[in-house]
Amino acid sequence: MIIQEIIAIAGKPGLFRILITNRSNLIVESMVDQKRLSIPGTSRISSLADITMYTTAEDILLMDVLNRINDHVGKGDLPDIKGNAQATKDFVDEVVPEMDHERVYNSDLKKLVQWFGILRENKAFPLTNEVKDEEKLEDKTNAESEVDSGEEKPKAKKAAPKKAATKKPSAKKVAPKKPAGKKTVAKKAPVKK
């Protein structure tokens, strides 16, 4: 299953598969009970593809952690996450020994095991990141075709900068100055009767 299609929604338990997206909302299907919901675009959602787990070295993508758990468990049983927090912590330590215990809390581990159980019930394994795989394949194909043809793609030419149009200064009309000290009185036209 493609991990970009799977999300967690704040305030709603479980995981959801994205069916339709548009500007104002998402149509999703619960991976727990297969009910469809319309989620407003203002909801806080997290794509599983964007989540990482803290380790003592470089952080690991959640997809890789979930795939590791699947390889480790196979068809075996998961630890009881409701009962013993230490059992959950020990289980995850077996799969991800480099996990940073100072930054990963027991509640995070509990959620990780819950999500794994939901994904396994929905036969989602192995999780893939198909978009990136396609991009890599496309880039590789483009590079091979350039090498095979022996030609490089022509680079786009830059447009020459336009010169600014220069305006000639317009002649300003100046009103004649009146001599100082003389008052001008408007004469009234005679009225005819």
Question: Describe it for me?
Answer:
A hairpin with a 3-residue loop joins β2 (16-21) and β3 (25-30). This protein is of the alpha+beta class. It has a 5-stranded antiparallel β-sheet with strand order 4-3-2-1-5, with no helix packed on it. The chain has a two-stranded antiparallel sheet with strand order 6-7. The longest helix is centred in the last third of the chain and has 20 residues, at 130-149. α2 (85-95) crosses α3 (106-121). Mean pLDDT is 75; it is low at 132-137 and 139-158. The protein is built from 4 helices and 7 strands; from the N terminus they run βββββββαααα. It has helices at 62-73, 85-95, 106-121, 130-149; strands spanning 6-9, 16-21, 25-30, 36-40, 45-47, 52-53, 60-61. It has a domain at 3-121: Arc Repressor Mutant, subunit A, CATH 1.10.10.1650.
